């Protein structure tokens, strides 16, 4: 083990300047979900330069490449995401985003670079590896659509285990954070239309005010987590948009609410649409308004496999030293469509420490 680790470290040291340049290039040229054409072309060329034969345009701009080690056995897949976010970057780095209003604020440029570096190391050591590998470069993680499309296209065929990493601000550099079981939440969305009857703002008694009714709906939805779900099951219901009205002196006829609900349990997740619908329709009916609800399923909870987590922990300590693994005490209510790959094979996502940097999804990350 020590001999191959020394070889890996030597290779990484040799590759570091090029990897740094790769990351800076990707950071300067971010692309939103489903628009990762240039990023995908860049990744595909890097893989071809390694002598691999990437499959491209999978589920949009997705890419896979297999590394044949010359040995049989179960295939391990390693996944990275490639898309950026609609955020204007606020930094003075020379490699800051060149695309106005788009930024790699979640670190997917780092994830992609890490997997490209991993690919190079593994290609150079392929004869010493005990099992075949598949590299998965995924589009559209931020809108939770890319993983499903790639799985539907067969990228998990033949895969027996899958892993992924995510950079984690505030976790010390050289640390890995891990958790067995539910480590991230499901993410589903809802739309609620409150249909009242509008009129002059001076005569509210002649209207059914959808803004007032909508406000009651927002407040009542919070009782689902606090009063309808067992406290040991974390649930988040968040209204993220409330749109209504066109003028100071007009009560509108409709209000539109959107939001998300997050859970860590498949049963609780399946019950949430009926609960949200019942609360919204009940408030509207009591107020004389009509209600329309729509729900869209996203990704399920990320359920880390115990065996895979154990191997990641052992590898982390072998590479980074004793006490390099921090065990997460609680699950993260953020979501990751990596969960969809876990419907096909056991796997795990781990967090890699980024140190004292800005939080994810902020313009200074």
Explain this structure:
This protein has 365 residues and is α/β, with parallel strands linked by helices. The protein contains seven helices and 17 strands. Helix 1 runs antiparallel to helix 3 and helix 5 (210-228) runs antiparallel to helix 6 (266-287). 40% of the residues are buried.
Task: Name the features.
365 residues; alpha/beta; 8-stranded mixed β-sheet; 4-stranded antiparallel β-sheet; 17 strands; 33% helix
Describe what is shown at a glance.
This protein is α/β, with parallel strands linked by helices. The protein has helices spanning 2-28, 37-49, 108-124, 146-152, 210-228, 266-287, 306-320, and strands spanning 55-58, 62-67, 75-81, 133-138, 159-169, 176-178, 181-185, 187-195, 199-200, 235-244, 250-251, 254-263, 290-299, 302-304, 325-327, 332-335, 347-355.
**Average pLDDT rating:** 96
- Portion in strands: 25-35%
Count of helices?
7
- Tell me the span between the first and last alpha carbons: 36 Å
Give the secondary structure arrangement, pairings included.
Layout: H1 2-28, H2 37-49, E1 55-58, E2 62-67, E3 75-81, H3 108-124, E4 133-138, H4 146-152, E5 159-169, E6 176-178, E7 181-185, E8 187-195, E9 199-200, H5 210-228, E10 235-244, E11 250-251, E12 254-263, H6 266-287, E13 290-299, E14 302-304, H7 306-320, E15 325-327, E16 332-335, E17 347-355
Parallel strand pairs: 3-4, 3-5, 5-17, 6-15, 7-16
Antiparallel strand pairs: 1-2, 2-4, 6-17, 7-14, 8-12, 8-13, 9-11, 10-12
């Amino acid at each position: 083990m020590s001999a191959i680790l020394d070889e890996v470290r030597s290779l990484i040291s040799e590759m570091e300047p090029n990897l740094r340049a790769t990351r800076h290039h990707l950071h300067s040229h971010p692309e939103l979900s489903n628009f990762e054409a240039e990023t995908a072309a860049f990744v595909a060329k890097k893989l071809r330069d390694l002598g691999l034969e990437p499959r491209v345009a999978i589920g949009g701009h997705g890419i896979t490449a297999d590394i044949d080690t010359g040995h049989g056995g179960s295939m391990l897949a390693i996944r990275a995401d490639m898309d950026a976010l609609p955020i204007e970057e606020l930094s003075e780095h020379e490699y800051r985003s060149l695309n106005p209003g788009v930024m790699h604020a979640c670190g997917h440029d780092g994830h992609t670079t890490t997997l490209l570096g991993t690919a190079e190391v593994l290609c150079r050591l392929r004869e010493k590896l005990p099992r075949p590998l598949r590299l998965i470069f995924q589009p559209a993680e931020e809108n939770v659509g890319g993983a499903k499309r790639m799985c539907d296209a067969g990228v998990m065929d033949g895969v027996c285990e899958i892993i992924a990493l995510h950079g984690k601000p505030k976790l010390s550099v050289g640390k890995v954070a891990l958790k067995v079981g539910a480590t991230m939440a499901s993410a589903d969305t809802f739309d609620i239309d409150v249909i009242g009857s509008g009129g002059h703002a001076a005569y509210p008694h002649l209207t059914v005010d959808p803004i007032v009714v909508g406000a009651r709906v927002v407040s009542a939805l919070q009782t689902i987590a606090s009063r309808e779900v067992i406290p040991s099951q974390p649930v988040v219901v968040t209204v993220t948009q409330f749109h209504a009205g066109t003028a100071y002196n007009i009560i509108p006829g409709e209000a539109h609410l959107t939001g998300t609900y997050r859970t860590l349990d498949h049963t609780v997740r399946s019950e949430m649409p009926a609960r949200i619908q019942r609360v919204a329709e009940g408030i509207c009916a009591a107020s004389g308004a009509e209600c329309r609800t729509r729900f869209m399923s996203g990704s399920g909870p990320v359920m880390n496999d115990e065996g895979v987590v154990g191997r990641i922990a052992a590898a982390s300590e072998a590479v980074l030293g004793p006490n390099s693994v921090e065990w997460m005490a609680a699950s993260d209510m953020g979501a990751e469509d990596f969960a969809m790959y876990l419907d096909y094979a056991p796997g795990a996502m781990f967090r890699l420490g980024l140190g004292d940097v800005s939080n994810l999804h902020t313009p200074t990350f």
